[in-house]
Design goal:
By secondary structure, the protein is mainly β. Strand 10 and strand 11 form a beta hairpin. It has two domains: about 40 residues, no CATH class; about 100 residues, Immunoglobulin-like. The strands form four sheets. It has a four-stranded mixed sheet, with no helix packed on it. A four-stranded mixed sheet has the order 5-11-10-9, with no helix packed on it. The protein contains one helix and 13 strands, in the order E-H-E-E-E-E-E-E-E-E-E-E-E-E. It is globular.
C-alpha cells in the first residue's frame, strides 16, 4: 500500500521518508453506517484505521535521565534501517509509547505497574515528559517490534 517497498523512500529521511508497509483495517464495533452514502463525520474518523510499519533495524530514544517534580522534558525517538538511514519516529510511522510508572496521553489509561502511581506523564503528540512525583519510571517506544527504553528519575525540588 505504501508503494515504495523495494524502492527508495519518497522523501528524504529528514522529511520523514521511509520504506515499509501499511496494514489497513476497520473496527466494525465503532462503525454504525446504515446508509453508505450518509456517513456521519465522527464515524468516518473512528473506525477505519491504518498502521504504518517502517522497516526497522534499531530504535533509539532521547529522553531526560532526571527531572524535578513539576518539570518538563522532551522525549523523542528515531529508527535506523538499511544500516545508515535514520528516520524520526513520528506520524505516519506507527509507534507504541508505553512504560512502567508512565501515563501516556491517548493511551488506555494504564501505566505499566498498576499498583504504583505514575511518576511521569508522556504526550507523544508534543514529545513532552512531565514529572508528576518523585520516583523512577521507564519510558518505552516500540516500532515494528523493536523497542527502546529510558529510565527517568524524578527528584523533589
Amino acid at each position: 500500500m505504501n508503494g515504495n517497498s523495494g524502492k527508495n523512500p519518497a522523501s528524504t529521511q529528514d522529511d520523514g521518508g521511509f520504506t515499509g508497509w501499511t496494514m489497513p483495517g476497520t473496527d466494525p464495533r465503532r462503525g454504525r453506517v446504515a446508509d453508505p452514502f450518509d456517513v456521519p463525520a465522527h464515524d468516518a474518523e473512528t473506525w477505519p484505521r491504518a498502521e504504518v510499519h517502517a522497516r526497522t533495524e534499531a530504535v533509539d530514544m532521547i529522553a531526560p535521565a532526571t527531572l524535578t517534580v513539576g518539570g518538563l522534558g522532551h522525549a523523542s525517538a528515531t529508527l535506523t534501517k538499511d544500516g545508515t538511514r535514520t528516520v524520526p519516529v513520528a506520524r505516519p510511522v506507527g509507534a507504541t509509547w508505553s512504560g512502567t510508572r508512565v501515563e501516556v496521553a491517548g493511551g488506555d489509561g494504564g501505566h505499566g505497574d498498576h499498583h504504583a502511581a505514575p511518576v511521569v506523564a508522556y504526550d507523544p503528540a508534543t514529545s513532552t515528559v512531565t514529572a508528576l512525583r518523585a520516583g523512577t519510571a521507564v519510558l518505552r517506544v516500540t516500532v515494528n517490534g523493536v523497542t527502546a527504553e529510558r529510565t527517568i528519575t524524578v527528584r523533589r525540588g
